[in-house]
Write a structure and sequence with these properties.
Length: about 325
């Protein structure tokens, strides 16, 4: 039952709740590799996640030798690219020893990503081409699309627009065959998720390009929520790297979308206004912070989603405490 609930929380992006459930599961069943891998993926502190992986490695074989442990480490150690690359190579070798072709493909995909972030585009492209061959042989067309997106990024960075266009056409063909909508493409392929990975690895230019692609896709498709998420993501990237003016422009565009969609946008609007109030306070723009907080508070009791209402109220309380308004 807890496993099902955790998966439900994942799908609904309630990642903090999912993490707590996986922690309960792994604490109760410390020999379960799947529980440990899920817990490590959602632990907000990367060091905690790596410690969970170390606990899995101490399990007796074959569990402790599971190549997915090394593959997970490669994702979690992105800020340490040499360690991440070594882990991905280990995962590939263990996968080959076990004839686990999907793990091998995942490992090659990861190696390509790390190499790309190290400005080693030729080596990255080679790894991704190998991964693609595995995915094609396995009949996994969705993962083929994912790798095509990586290869397209590589082609664009090398100025090879013809190859980039060919990869885009190949993906469009796959999407038509699979009957995928633009929304499914956004959620499944997740250009925005790819952008976050590039940002975590320090490749700001690639992250920005991904967010621009994501915003353009959502705008063309008329999917305002997806456009809102992409704008917020782009804003967070700019904020993270000190581009406050551009970040605020993205955030304001997102707020405008939420206002345009009335009741449908109120949950996001209330939450994002609260975030704006916090940012304006940090920038010393107290009047704008007060206005955003007032608007957020006026919306919160109209929300039907009780979890979102509680989240906004909790954030509002934190902000008021920070401002010394204890009453």
């Amino acid at each position: 039952r807890l496993w099902i609930e955790a998966r439900y929380r994942e799908v609904n992006q309630e990642l903090d709740k999912a993490s707590k459930i996986y922690k309960t599961l792994f604490t109760t069943h410390p020999d379960n590799v799947d529980y440990g891998l899920k817990l490590s993926a959602y632990q907000t502190n990367k060091l905690d996640g790596l410690q969970t992986l170390d606990a899995l490695r101490r399990l007796p074989p074959p569990s402790g030798d599971d190549p997915r442990i090394d593959l997970q480490e490669s994702w979690m150690a992105l800020s340490m690219p040499d360690r991440a690359l070594a882990a991905a190579i280990r995962a590939q070798r263990k996968g080959e020893d076990r004839s686990a072709r999907f793990v091998v493909a995942n490992s090659l995909e990861m190696q390509g990503f790390i190499l790309f972030c190290q400005q080693r585009e030729t080596a990255a492209s080679t790894a991704w081409q190998k991964a693609k061959q595995f995915y094609v042989a396995l009949g996994d067309r969705n993962k083929t699309r994912v790798v095509n997106t990586y290869l397209r990024m590589c082609a664009l960075k090398n100025g090879n627009s013809k190859e980039a266009d060919q990869l885009s056409e190949e993906n469009e063909s796959i999407e038509r065959d699979l009957g995928l909508s633009a929304e499914t493409d956004y959620q499944g392929l997740s250009t925005a998720r790819l952008a976050r990975k590039f940002a975590d690895a320090g490749d700001v230019a690639a992250a920005r390009q991904c967010y621009q692609d994501s915003i353009a896709l959502a705008r063309r498709s008329g999917l305002w929520r997806n456009q809102m998420f992409a704008l917020d993501g782009a804003g967070n990237i700019e904020l993270r790297f000190g581009n406050v003016v551009l970040a605020n422009k993205y955030f304001e565009d997102s707020l405008s979308l939420e206002r345009m969609h009335g009741l449908q946008g109120q949950g996001w609007l209330s939450y994002d206004l609260l975030q704006k109030a916090s940012r304006m306070r940090d920038e010393g723009r107290l009047h704008e912070s007060e206005e955003a907080l007032r608007e957020s508070t006026s919306l919160v009791f109209r929300l039907r989603n009780q979890d979102r209402r509680a989240e906004v109220l909790d954030g509002t309380a934190d902000l008021l405490i920070d401002r010394g308004q204890l009453k």
